[in-house]
Design a protein that fits this description.
22-stranded parallel β-sheet; 36 strands; elongated
Length: 471
C-alpha cells in the first residue's frame, strides 16, 4: 500500500505503523511477503547433478543422484523433493505426470543451477516444458537462452500446457524468443520470479506480435491463477497478461518497460489487481506505430473462442506512472468475439496515477453503449501532467467517482503533500516538509477495499522485494 493511496494532508485520524498484520486469509501482503516453497518431510529426497546417472528403473529409496531433472521427475511420487545442484543442464521436458501431491523441483540450498537452452529451442518449443502434468513445482532455477533465429520463430522459457496445480516460484527466466512463462490450465501459481529480455523475436519491430513475458494461454477457459511478487520487465511484447481466467490474483508485482500493455486483463472475471508498481523509465519499448509507451493496466474482451465478458474486476492500491495511460478499457476493433465486448462491476480505488502521456483514465464506449452493473472509480489520486482529461469516457453517468482527487501538473499548496520529482524513480513520492500522513477511509467504510492494506506499513518504491532464483 502506497503511503498516499488514501491520504490527504489535513484529513483526520492518524495511521499507526504499529498496526501491522498479515492478510486474514493468509494471502501475501507487504506485512507478509511471499515465501519459498519448503521440502515436505513426509516425502523422499532425490538429487540431480551433472555427475549423476539416470537408472533403468526407479529407485525406491531416498537420496539417489540423477543426471537429468526429467528422469528424476519420472521417478518421483507425491511429497518428494528433487534438489538440483549447481551446474548447467539442458532443456527439461515433463509429460503425463500426475503425482497425488506436490513434487518440488528446486535448487539445492545455496546453489544456482542453470537450465540452458543453448540457443537451440525449436519454434514453439520450451526450455522447460510441462505437458499434461499436475502437482509439479519448479523453484529457484535460472532458465535462459532459447535463441532468436528470426522474427517469425522462437521458443518459450517455461511452458505448462493442459496442466493443473503447477507452481512456478522464484525462478529467473530471461532471453526467450517468445513468452518467458506461458501457462494453460487450472490453479496455476507464478510467484516471486524475475522475467526479463523476453519476446526477443520482436526486438526488430518487423511485425506485430503480442506475446507477453508472462501470460495465461487463451485457448480454453481456465480457473484459478496467481501472479504474485514477480519482477517482470524489459519485454519486447506485453509484460503480464491474464487471459480467459475466472478467479485471478495479480498482487505485489513490479512491472515495467514493455510494449503496448504492462498488464493486460482480457475476457476474464473475478480478478483482483492489488498493490502492483507499474511504470516505464525508458522509451526503448515504445510502440513503433504510435511512438507511445505501454498502457499501465489495459482491460478488454479480445478473444474469439473462449473467456467471459469482463466482469467483477478490482483494481486497488497500485502505483501506475510514466506510462501512456494509467488504466484503459479498450473496445477490441474486430468482430467475432466469443463474448459481448463490454464490462461490468469494475472497482478502481486507492490507486496513484502519475505522469501519463495521455488521459490517466480512458474508458472506451462498450458494446451496447452502457456498461453493465455498478462501476466505481473511488478515492484515487491522479497527478495529471498531460493536456488531456484526467477521466476520459462517454459514460460518465455509469461511474461513481466519489472521493477521487485530481491534481494538475503544477505542484501547489493544494496537493496532498507529495514532492514529485520528475524522472527520479527512487523515491518519487517523498512527502514534502511538514506533510503528515493521515487516514481518511477506514476499511469498514469502504466495503470493497482490501482490509489488510489498512494495517500494512506505508510503502514507497523502495519496498519491493528482489525476486528470482538464488544466484
Amino acid at each position: 500500500m502506497h503511503a498516499l493511496a488514501r491520504t490527504l494532508g489535513l484529513a483526520a485520524g492518524l495511521f499507526s505503523l504499529a498496526a501491522l498484520a498479515a492478510g486474514a486469509d493468509g494471502s501475501w501482503s507487504w506485512c507478509s511477503q511471499p515465501k519459498r516453497l519448503a521440502a515436505n518431510p513426509a516425502g523422499r529426497t532425490f538429487h540431480v547433478r551433472t555427475s549423476g546417472s539416470d537408472p533403468r528403473s526407479c529407485p525406491d529409496w531416498s537420496g539417489y543422484t540423477f543426471r537429468t531433472i526429467s528422469a528424476a521427475a519420472k521417478c518421483a511420487r507425491g511429497k518428494d523433493t528433487i534438489y538440483v545442484h549447481a551446474g548447467t543442464y539442458g532443456p527439461v521436458q515433463l509429460s503425463n505426470l500426475w503425482p497425488s501431491d506436490t513434487v518440488l523441483i528446486a535448487n539445492a540450498p545455496g546453489e544456482s543451477p542453470v537450465i540452458e537452452g543453448w540457443g537451440g529451442i525449436p519454434d514453439f518449443g520450451a526450455i522447460v516444458g510441462m505437458w499434461r502434468v499436475s502437482n509439479i513445482a519448479i523453484q529457484g532455477l535460472t532458465i535462459r537462452n532459447t535463441g532468436v533465429s528470426d522474427p517469425e520463430r522462437g521458443g518459450y522459457g517455461i511452458h505448462a500446457y493442459e496442466s493443473t496445480f503447477v507452481k512456478i516460484y522464484f525462478n529467473t527466466v530471461h532471453d526467450t524468443a517468445r513468452h518467458g512463462i506461458l501457462t494453460n490450465g487450472h490453479q496455476i501459481e507464478v510467484v516471486g520470479n524475475e522475467i526479463y529480455n523476453t519476446v526477443m523475436r520482436n526486438q526488430w519491430f518487423k511485425a506485430d506480435y503480442w506475446d507477453a513475458a508472462v501470460t495465461s494461454q487463451p485457448d480454453r477457459n481456465q480457473w484459478g491463477y496467481k501472479l504474485i511478487g514477480n519482477s517482470i520487465h524489459d519485454s519486447y511484447g506485453e509484460c503480464a497478461d491474464v487471459l480467459a481466467v475466472d478467479g485471478a490474483t495479480v498482487e505485489g508485482n513490479r512491472i515495467y518497460n514493455c510494449v503496448s500493455s504492462n498488464l493486460f486483463v482480457s475476457t476474464s472475471q473475478n480478478v483482483t489487481v492489488n498493490r502492483n508498481w507499474i511504470y516505464a523509465n525508458s522509451d526503448k519499448f515504445n510502440r513503433r506505430d504510435y511512438g507511445t509507451r505501454a498502457t499501465g493496466i489495459q482491460l478488454a474482451n479480445e478473444g474469439k473462442s473462449v473467456g467471459w465478458t469482463l466482469n467483477n474486476i478490482r483494481v486497488t492500491n497500485n502505483i501506475i506512472e510514466w506510462v501512456s495511460q494509467g488504466i484503459r478499457y479498450w473496445k477490441a476493433p474486430h468482430s467475432g468475439q466469443a463474448v459481448k465486448d463490454t464490462y461490468g462491476n469494475l472497482y478502481v480505488a486507492f490507486n496513484n496515477f502519475n505522469r501519463t502521456q495521455f488521459s490517466p483514465v480512458r474508458l472506451d464506449t462498450p458494446e451496447g453503449w452502457a456498461p453493465r452493473g455498478t462501476n466505481r472509480f473511488r478515492r484515487n489520486l491522479v497527478l495529471n501532467s498531460s493536456k488531456y482529461s484526467w477521466f476520459s469516457t462517454d459514460q460518465w453517468g455509469s461511474w461513481d467517482l466519489t472521493g477521487s482527487w485530481n491534481y494538475g501538473k503544477n505542484v501547489t499548496a493544494a496537493n496532498p503533500g507529495i514532492q514529485d520529482t520528475w524522472g527520479s524513480y527512487i523515491p518519487a513520492y517523498d512527502l514534502r516538509s511538514g506533510a503528515v500522513i493521515r487516514w481518511t477511509v477506514p476499511p469498514w467504510s469502504e466495503p470493497d477495499m482490501p482490509s489488510t492494506d489498512f494495517h500494512c506499513k506505508s510503502r514507497s518504491q523502495n519496498d519491493w522485494n528482489t525476486p528470482g532464483a538464488i544466484n
